[in-house]
Amino acid sequence: MYIFLMPLLIVILLSLPAVNVIRKAQTGKKAKNALLFNIASFFGVLLLATILPIGTLVSAEDGAAVTAAVSGGSAGLGYIAAALAVGLGSIGCGIAVAAAAPAAIGAVSEEPKAFSKALIFVALGEGVALYGFLIAFMILGKL
Questions:
Q1: What is the largest CA-CA distance in the chain?
Q2: What superfamily does domain 61-143 belong to in CATH?
């Protein structure tokens, strides 16, 4: 039951400053600062919980339990690394293609002979996502 309520609670707590913006109780820089503080504090607590897993290490009774807890944490960090590789690679791909594709379309509309050069620049941007995907497979292969 708690596994379903915790993500809902986190989303509600992160979106509390947005409620004030929707109700027009806060506007401008004050609302932006409240939202940024809320998100930064969430990721700060998440980072501390990742670095200092106090609950699992304090309740461990023997060395095997400690080893299992530490190896489970490293596998979790591996999954996070794979997700970040794909996610950030896809965001980079989107930024590159968003800049290159309209320029390529404009160049091709003015001079049709420039199609192959324009296609290369768009494909190079898409390659960033493929590299992120490849790195994620390499990370998951090591787990």
A1: 73
A2: F1F0 ATP synthase subunit C (1.20.20.10)
